[in-house]
Design goal:
The chain is mainly alpha-helical. The chain contains 8 helices and 3 strands, in the order E-E-H-H-H-H-H-H-H-E-H. The chain has a 3-stranded antiparallel beta sheet with strand order 2-1-3.
Length: 278
């Protein structure tokens, strides 16, 4: 017997008349129904399919939720990695990736719970989706900072190389002409100064060294920046930030809807018209 789905696709090609002898059939195995039948979410089902659906209804439990949570965390980390990797490699940040992340998390949690859902699954899916999308800004920002620093180091090295080349050329010209540049005369003092007069050293300003952050403080700082990144983008770029938040909300909505679970209601048994007339 084929796999059953508690929410079958409506049939629009032909009319269906409930209780008409010879025309009653199961929505799941598509076999004719004679005698006893059941109603599964308003759809007619034969006794065999109804029994199979009753046994396949996912039951929520603590173990089921924990398994769905583990699957959801794995999907969130995978979505975060894919989001950040694409942005780092291509240099393009696509907000529509939030939709894929929400779908991945919802699909993974349903696989972990064997189809069970509910409010706590929905809240967890929403939190994981927001975490994955917002925290992707951390590796993207670190990569940008590293590239910018490497560019500055390269520019400084090129500047020093140019200065060294100019100094070498200057020395070569002096050697060829047999002349050396005379040192610049020392500036004359403003007032008379005796040999035994001491010169007071100029006061130097000392700045206190910035306290170094502990690894835990650094991790907490990155966590805060990541979670606040959608709203920080809104402050710096209102139009683009608003679009990103709207797309993120749609991705969260996808995860919320997918983890709601399927309500399966089975009614019966009932008797067909043919059985009743006999």
């Amino acid at each position: 017997m084929a796999d059953v789905n508690p929410n079958p696709t409506p049939q629009f090609e032909k009319a269906e008349y409930v209780g008409t002898p010879g025309n009653d059939h199961c929505h799941y195995c598509h076999q004719s129904v004679t005698g006893t039948y059941y109603r599964v979410n308003q759809a007619m089902a034969c006794p065999a399919c109804a029994e199979k659906l009753r046994g396949s209804v996912a039951r929520d439990s603590h173990a089921t939720y924990m398994r769905a949570l583990l699957f959801g965390i794995g999907a969130a980390l995978a979505g975060l990695a894919l989001y950040a990797t694409f942005a780092i490699v291509t240099g393009i940040i696509i907000g529509y990736a939030s939709l894929a992340v929400g779908w991945m998390i919802g699909k993974a949690m349903l696989a972990g719970s064997n189809g069970a859902g509910g409010r706590r699954y929905q809240v967890t899916a929403v939190a994981l989706t927001y975490f994955a999308v917002s925290m992707a800004a951390v590796p993207i920002g670190i990569s940008y900072a590293m590239k910018h620093r490497a560019k500055l180091v390269t520019q400084q090295a090129q500047r020093r190389q140019t200065q060294q080349q100019l100094a070498d050329e200057q020395r070569q010209l002096e050697q060829e002409s047999g002349q050396k540049t005379a040192p610049a005369p020392a500036p004359e003092p403003d007032g008379p100064q005796t040999s035994n007069q001491a010169v007071a050293p100029e006061p130097t300003e000392t700045r206190p060294a910035a306290p170094r952050k502990t690894p835990m403080e650094a991790m907490l700082g990155l966590l805060f920046l990541g979670l606040a990144s959608p709203f920080m983008e809104l402050a710096s770029n209102p139009f683009g930030g608003m679009i990103g938040i709207v797309i993120l909300f749609i991705g969260i909505r996808i995860a919320w809807t997918m983890t709601a679970g399927q309500a399966v209601q089975i009614f019966g048994p009932f008797e067909t018209t043919a059985s009743g007339s006999s």
